[in-house]
Amino acid sequence: MNTWxxxxxxxxxEEALGALASAPGLARPIAGGTDLxxxxxxxxxxxxxxxxxxxxxxxxxxxxxxxxxxxFIGAAVPVRTITESPLIHRHALALAEACDLIGGPxxxxxxxxxxxxxxxxxxxxxxxxxVALDAQVEIATFGNGRRLEPILHIFQGVGxxxxxxxxxxxxxxxxxxxxxxxxxAFGRVMRPQGVALPVLNLAVWLQRKEEHIxxxxxxxxxxxxxxxxxxxxxxxxxxxxxxxxxxxQALDLVDSTLHFRTSPQRATAAYRYHLCKMLLEEMxxxxxxRALLVEDV
Length: 297
Fold this sequence. Notes:
11 helices, 5-stranded antiparallel sheet, Uridine Diphospho-n-acetylenolpyruvylglucosamine Reductase, domain 2, globular, 27% strand, 4-stranded antiparallel sheet, Uridine Diphospho-n-acetylenolpyruvylglucosamine Reductase, domain 3
């Protein structure tokens, strides 16, 4: 039995939205399909799909370019392209590092960043990097134009996004361009058995000014049903001198301000607290050194 009844290849955002809105049954956009197709083939997880609207031939969704004062990444840009892009390495290195860890080469050739976010898993690698980079999401709505939203506004729960799936599509992501003293880093720990779930992943973006951390953003997953910023640790480090004592005090805040639980698919809560401290120290150090080495645009 077919998983869907109709398959439409759209060539514009407007065509895709029209096809979703006019479908006589349940309709969904599809790009790489590496998450969606698995879901559709699990009986009972989704009601029958009538129409799939392929967005991979929409030029705008395949753009990766500088626009005025921001970097734009189309929602249908393959993960491999992001991993290899000089623009991403220049302006959002944590995202390149995260995307390089998604699946294997075949998956990275097909999977898209838009699908990574739309699937709304609280520890998807690309999404954790985007949170630390403070990405803005461009969303197109049928009959109601477009809007920009902070990426964290998209997530409502595990696998649940705020997108109206038969009326809206992700167009792309806007990131601030790199400037002097800024850098980012991403790290992840997985189970050696190859289970496709991170035990923990963490991304850091910071602004360095001489020997001080002028500003910092830290995203950690999975630490709840939606992606989390380590706000208390960010507040502590912002404006502080980067010293071993400062880092030690920041690591002490992990136990009291972040919340991990024991997961049979991942690890015990105690082990994940340990990993979080290890990754946080390493990623802050990586970003700190990069902020010194990378020159202004």
